[in-house]
Every structure is written in structure tokens, then in C-alpha cells.
Amino acid sequence: MVKKLKQSALLIVALIILLTGCSSSSSGENDSGEQVKLVVWIWDSAQIGLDTNMEAFKQAHPNIEIEYQLMGQTDLYQKFLIAANTGDKMPDIVAVESSNLAQMVSIDALYDLTEKTAPYRDKMVPFKWEDAMKDDKVYAMPWDSGPVVMFYRKDIFEAAGLPTEPEQVAEQIKTFEDYKEAGNLIKEKTGKAMFADSRTRSNNRFFETMMWQRGQWYFDKDGNVSLDAPEVIETGEFYASMVKDGLIVDAEAFSENWLNAFADGNIATIVGAAWYDNLLSNLIDPDSSGKWGVVPMPKWSESDPYASANDGGSNLAINANSEHPEEAWTFIEFMLGREDSQLKMMEEGGFLPSLQTTFEDEAYAEPVEYFGNQPVREVFTEALGQIYPQAYTVDFPVANQLMRDAFAEVFLNNASVADTFQKTADELRSRTGRN
Length: 435
Description:
This protein is of the alpha/beta class and 435 residues long. It contains 18 helices and 12 strands. The protein has helices at residues 2-27, 44-51, 54-60, 73-86, 98-106, 114-117, 154-159, 166-172, 176-190, 205-213, 230-244, 256-263, 276-284, 325-336, 339-349, 376-384, 396-413, 417-432, and strands at residues 36-42, 64-70, 93-97, 133-134, 137-138, 141-142, 148-153, 195-197, 248-250, 269-273, 292-296, 314-318. A 5-stranded mixed beta sheet has the order 2-1-3-12-6, sandwiched between helices. A 3-stranded antiparallel beta sheet has the order 10-7-11. The radius of gyration is 24 Å and the shape is globular. The N and C termini lie far apart (78 Å).
């Protein structure tokens, strides 16, 4: 009898140990001591943000090794689409811009994070979730946000006789008509360009943010193609007029010519997302500390209800075929779910958090040396609250590519914007099956 009781007790102890081991494994803490390597596909500027927290992560999770594999965004998405189609287990984690996220979600290539992200649903910027969802399930964790503002070169503005202090610049350039007028003055007085874009290989970000600020998009709120709507055509015609007036450096974004134009001080502004904070100081124009300022994005009309737009922002997701989804979530949650991690990425990497619980931190009011000690993060967060709430949608990559071809036709063949947009809208309907 005693022998049977001892056997039963040992059985119970063994069962407890087994259950404890299972519980530990599912938590993602990897307490077993087993070394796990996670492969992360990411682009170089995004790695800068994660690197700010890597030492802290290694100390907290010494059994999880991170291997970054760097590639350009376009290459990353194409490779991941192939990997998803073949059931490849690599990468474990993938960085995805919001503009391409819905496409990745749609092919069922990402791990279901619905339960894991539940504690963060009310803590993140609300519109960041829509492109991460399918059938009420969540497949990515929001990282940084992309509220659009206007970055400007103080020295170029001064040479053109324009104001240079942020408050004065914001007062002078309230609308895109004001922006165009300032661009013409800068061209006349200095020979510099107001902005950079490519006539034949545009990424369309400028035009798309102009649309977004007006509450317009390639698709309307019912999902129908709206590229040929009067307001969108009007926006396209205005954008095309600035290009045709010679207010640009004709260079593809992030090409060598584009980077050289900034390095040579030939571009006066960037109407772009808050993440240019990171790119300007680390990649685009690191030698011009103190020369750049930040003001709100120009509006189409002063009476517009929305004063900004969204441009991208990033997310982290887990490959549905990963062998280590729990450890992958441990990494993602450490980087994106902790206020300390997000604030460190903002202060040292220039990534504006989507985690709204950080917004009251005093770091947002701190002066930023690169921008002449202007507290630019206050401009970013103010813009974040003034964005028309809409999603990129699964068909954004198709629309964006067709738009590149449309503007190339406008600029190379002097085609009518209205006719070109109508033709492109019909092509978009054919390619997507939308009305």
C-alpha cells in the first residue's frame, strides 16, 4: 500500500513538472535553457530602432539569439511572398510597412496574434490596427506611426527671404497654394528645388499624402475605386503643376541622385512622415544638424477638418510557419509593448511610437539637437491626432504601381491628368475586381 502511495505521489510530481514545463514554453520565456535563434527580415533604417534595445533584450532573454537579415523593402516583400507560398520557416519575424501589411495579411502568411495583442488594442493608435486585421483576427503588432509634417531647410528659406522660425513658417505656409508660392520664390531666389520626386519612377508618397489629408484615397469608404473622383483629379492636377513648374529635383526616392541632392543642400523641404526624423539624421543628411526645422503639413484648404495624413509606419509580424512563434512574440512584445523600449527607440532612433501610453512622457517635449533644439516630437504627436482615419487596404500595392505609370504618362507624354486618372481607375477596377 505504501509502495502504491509513493508511486502515485511520484506520478503527481512528474505531472506537475510536465505541466509547468508546458506552461513555461507557451509563455515564450524559454526558461528551459535551450538556445533559440530567431531570423528577422528587416531593412537597415528599421534595424537602427531595434538596436537601441538589443542589449536590454539580451540581458532579459539570454537564450534567444537574434539574426538580422537586411534587405530593401521591395525585395523583402517579394521574398516573403515566395517564402509564404513555399511554406518556408524563415524568417521567424518580418518587418512590414503599414502600406504593404494588408497584402501580407491577405495571403494567410502571418501568425495569428489576436490573443497576444489583446492587451494592446486600446493602447495603440487606433488606425494602425485595420491593415493588420482579417476576419476580426490580428496578424501584426504596430510599431511606429507616420503622421505627415513638413521638414524644411532654414538656410534655404533664409536665402529666399522667407521666415525661418517654426512659428513663422507655419503661419506663412498653411496651404499647398502657399507651399507652391514659396517653392516658386525659392526657385527664383536660390535656384534650389522645393522638393524631390521622380517624373517616371515616383513612389507617389507626396501625392498620396495630399489625397489622405483631404480624406480621399484610391478607394472610397465603401471600397469602390475613387481615383477618378473630381477631388482626386483636382489634387493630381495641382501636384502635376508643381512638377511641371520645375519645383523638383527629378530623382527617384532614396536613389544616389536623390541622396546627393540633399547632401548638396539643393532641396528645401520634405513633406513626409515623422520617421524622416530618423532618416534625415542617420541617412539622408547627417551633416546638416541644426539646419532643418519642422512645421505642420500644408492643408488643401484652411477649412479642412484634417490637418495631416499618414505615410507608412512599420509593424512586426511572425511568419505563420515559424518553429518559434512564442519566442518571436517575446521579442516583439519586448520591443513594441514596453514603454521604455518605445521611448528609447524614439529618443535614439527617431521612431515615433504607436503606443499611446508613452505620449505623456516628458521625452516628447525635449529639444532635439539635430533640429536646432526644436521639440519636434510635439509637432509629430499633434499631427497624429489630426489624420483622417482610413486603411491602405490589400490593393494598395497595385494602386501605387499603376499610379507611378500614370504620372509617367502625364509627364513624359503631356497627357491630361483627368484622362489618365480615368484610364488608370478603370485599370484598377479590372485588376482588383472593385467597382
